[in-house]
Task: structure prediction
Amino acid sequence: MAGSKVEEYSMLVTGEGNDELSGGHRRASSIVHKLEIEDPRGQNDARENQSDRSSRSWKYAAIIIVGEIVGSGILGLPFAMKHLGWFFGSLASPLFGTCAMYSGLLLSRARNQYFPRCASYTDLAQALVGRNFALATQIAIVSNWILLLPYFLVASSDAMMILLDEILPGANLCFYQVSLVIALLLFMPLQRRSLHGLTGMTFASDVSILVAILLMLIDFAVNGDSNASTTALPPRLSFFEGYMGISSFVFAFQGQSMFLEIMHEMRIPKHFTKASSIANTFMIVLYLVTSAWTYYFLGDAVEGFMPDSVRTPAVRAIVGLLLSYHIMCSYMLTHQPLAMQLYRIANGNDTEKEIPMPTRREWGTIVFLLLLFSYLVANIIPFFVSLQAIIGSAMGAPIMFGWPPLFYFLCCRSKGTNMSDIDKAACGFFFFVMLPFCTIVGTAAAIDDMINQWSKNSSPFRCG
Result:
């Protein structure tokens, strides 16, 4: 399997028995089943056919980037534009999309020019600083994945509630009940110990969210009001309330920690910059059109969870079904490599011997514990916007603004090369301005919003 080859290659690079766990809304580990890993000695060139070569091209890499990043994060962007107003809301997608492109450029330089055998953030951290920094990096990435699980459970439960409200209007189901149903539905599919058995659903999942977005935009145009109340500048909100919109855009472009793995699997890794630029340009346009279109037709009436703004009952039901399926797939694609990583950690990450595959009982225990954790956190913090903001700020900001400039600076210093003045200014701005501002202020804003939501809503595990 391609996945085992990635693991063996990563161990050769780092001395660690670990694969990188990346951020973002669709996970990088599924990439190993979409791209064939490059044979560094070219021994298999004669056996490669045209489809093998094209599947490792920059074009396919661009498709992978879009497929792995575009996900449930887009569902909070219209509400973010409502908080930012037309001016700053329209600038947010180009701004953070450009930041994502530059982060990709820095990672491409660090990997392709200095450490071409590195295939992950953890690999680069090990090569540049050492074991302790690699461990800290690994913990941060794993923490990001762990927080994504309850976020996906909240989003999929919200989508399922929209579906159930339409097909069972008198049921009056509560969030804790629906989220329990989602957790139970996930339990059996999660028993698979390999992503190989899950790849058949990824294409349908990608199609489902694109169809859902298209249906929602059509519904907004039909049932919305082109004269809806909108503002050019942010409305009169507290600073923290206004900043919540920025966190949503950071979250929507998060995913840089998978970029090194994509490069490692490309036939010509130096072409990654082209793939990243095209992918992020597409996402800039998609996010800008989606958020601006929705805000134009709905104005201040736009909801924090985009599907809640749909008016047509039949469209609501279809959108709820498509999104619940898509987000449940996201949960599964995030859970499997995370569970395997936690199993390796629990077994000591012994680099002297191969760690065996977990037994069914061991794997089932991990699945149960992660589902239980997700269910409890999702019901304690059942707020889509708040969870999205805290992940985007506490995790997404360091992944985008912290590690890439730090890696590139350390690469240049280790090899004795000089950074250009433009790179010095840009990296300094990322690391000393954007990183602390987006992380500290964004996290504080998300916590403030959670406190406000708790005061307005019923206690966990209660209806209301």
